[in-house]
Amino acid sequence: MQTAQQCGPAAGMPHRGALVTLRQTADNNHMSDTASNPSTPSQPASEAKQYSFSKDASADRYLAHHGDNVAGLVSFLDEADQINVTHTVVDDAHQGQGLAGRLVEFALTDLRDSSDKPITATCSYVQLWLQRHPEFAETLAR
């Protein structure tokens, strides 16, 4: 397993092996991505991967699920004056399918809608994603 991007401070971030052992948590912030990924030539439409997303508030992270497996995560720090998105990880088997972007969008949308705090990102992937999605500019710390 490899990280989609090495982001933010390493201290306190889950190590690569931790992704494999995570399990889906059921809460109010769980949603399914019913629109499958577009099929690739090597993957028929009937086998296109579907994902669901949830917030694991006890661990300050958002998870992407594929069936019973965790396919990716976005970690954040809820600080006194801001929320800092620190890390994005996608399992090797799920890379190259746009999962990281969809997970980041889910996480930032939830953070924006559930908190009045400005959002910062020390994760380089999230920084790049934010540059490509100006509709989230109003949530960023100035």
UniProtKB/TrEMBL annotation:
<feature type="domain" description="N-acetyltransferase">
    <location>
        <begin position="54"/>
        <end position="141"/>
    </location>
</feature>
<feature type="region of interest" description="Disordered">
    <location>
        <begin position="1"/>
        <end position="53"/>
    </location>
</feature>
<dbReference type="Pfam" id="PF14542">
    <property type="entry name" value="Acetyltransf_CG"/>
</dbReference>
<feature type="compositionally biased region" description="Polar residues">
    <location>
        <begin position="22"/>
        <end position="53"/>
    </location>
</feature>
<keyword id="KW-0808">Transferase</keyword>
<dbReference type="InterPro" id="IPR016181">
    <property type="entry name" value="Acyl_CoA_acyltransferase"/>
</dbReference>
<dbReference type="InterPro" id="IPR031165">
    <property type="entry name" value="GNAT_YJDJ"/>
</dbReference>
<protein>
    <submittedName>
        <fullName>N-acetyltransferase</fullName>
    </submittedName>
</protein>
<dbReference type="GO" id="GO:0016740">
    <property type="term" value="F:transferase activity"/>
</dbReference>
<dbReference type="InterPro" id="IPR045057">
    <property type="entry name" value="Gcn5-rel_NAT"/>
</dbReference>
